Amino acid sequence: MSVADVSIVVLLALFVAALVPRFHLGLAALPVAFLVGLAADRSADEVTAFFPGDFFVLLVGITALFAVAQINGTLDWLLDGMLRLVGGRALMIALVPFLIGAVLTAIGTLPAAATAIVAPIALGIAARYGIPPLIAAVLGLTGIISGLLSPLAVYGSTAYQLGEKLKVGLPGSAPGSFFLGGVLAGLIVSTACLVVGFRTGAMPSGHLTPVGPPPADPPATEPSTAHGTGRPYLEESTRRARSPIAARILTLTCLLAVVVLSVGFDINIGYLGLAAAVVQQLALRLDPSEIISRIPWNIVLLIGGLLTYVALMQDLGAFTRISELLRVEGAPMLSLLVLCYIAGITSFAASSIAVFATTMPLVPAIVADGASPVGAILAIALASILVDINPLGITGGLILGAAGPDDRAPLFRQLLTCGLVSVVAAPALACAAFGWW
User: Fold this and answer.
1) Residue 235 reports pLDDT greater than 60
2) Looking at the predicted structure, is the pLDDT value of residue 53 above 70?
3) Could you tell me if residue 331 is left (phi over 0), alpha (psi between -120 and 50 degrees) or otherwise beta?
4) I want to staple 309 with a disulfide (CB 3.0 to 4.6 A). Which of 33, 157, 171, 416 is the partner?
5) Mean of per-residue pLDDT scores for the chain
6) CA neighbor of 185 nearest in space, from 195, 177, 174, 196
């Protein structure tokens, strides 16, 4: 058995062990990566180089930014505003994360950046209005998926450019077809999620009110605290009042600046979030320990460890080995189905866009055998994307990071279950529903 095969077996063992109480995947993944690396003659420095520093900055920066918004009451104020805007209707409240995610990715926001923005909103709504965190998370992620195949989005543009480069015979309407397919897939998954939620009673119905009372504006003449942080809005020692309205204006300005600069100018959203958090911390005279304590370090360890191990597996050729094991000869639709499973299984633990790009060169042979060029590309893209609803990648890490401490453990198990189910079902459904386009 090759080292690549061993790494696959070890990854499966880690997935199984994740179901055992008191087992922490992140804590185990780093030493496992070190041991597998030793077996493959990789030094400790080489293994350490696989640690996803970009993810570390992304998660820490965005959670720090939204920690400030939570501490000064801006996040609760925004959620209350959303409730008033949609009239308190449960269905409309639940769809807010979906719509925000769809718009962000449709205009070109990268999936990780969009998730970083949507996750705190989705989980904040869930906590405030009694919506199950899993439903809120899935709706936010399916919204992001819905916009990913827009002509302006990374998946949509990559799909068309690679299709043209590979000369698979894409029609001029292909970009629109890709976008429509992504929107339909997102709507189907989100509708199914809501139907199950309402039918089982897990999703509240009718008009919703906040589970807890909204934070009251503190008086301007005496000390007050927000959200149990113990941080006064007025410090007697300095006699300087921090107006909640001024704090909200500053926080909203920072949030808008982060979105505009990351989307419009392709500046790293993690560093932007950290910079905005520091500006607010100094301007509002917040205790930095309040912000640091709200960063989910256990999630940073979890996803950082897993992504380190996955990168090592890629370097060892494990995912190429998986593709070789799954590849079979057959009719065009059967070959397409196999490719969808290759893309889906590999994307579960690796970068979806990277998997999609490396799977695309296999499409011309299927098209030459009679498969639809638009349908083949669309099916493979959706098979790669739909498995992102799992806790073991950057997307899942951002969702878990935005969840409350009490919700993280059950949400991790629920997302892991969704991910495992999606690996089995999503490739087949994507091929059946869109392979003929």
Assistant:
1) no
2) yes
3) beta
4) 33
5) 79
6) 177
Sign of CA dihedral 83, 89, 94, 97: negative
In one-letter notation, the amino acid at residue 180 is L
Q: What angle do CA 306, 308, 311 make, to 5 degrees?
A: 110
Check residue 349 and give its pLDDT.
64
For residue 314 the two structure tokens come to 């890629």
Q: Does the pLDDT value for residue 224 go beyond 80?
A: no
Each residue of 123-157: pLDDT tens digit? Answer: 888 887 788 888 988 998 899 989 888 887 777 87
CB 281 within 8 A of CB 132: no
> Six-digit token pair at 32?
């496992």
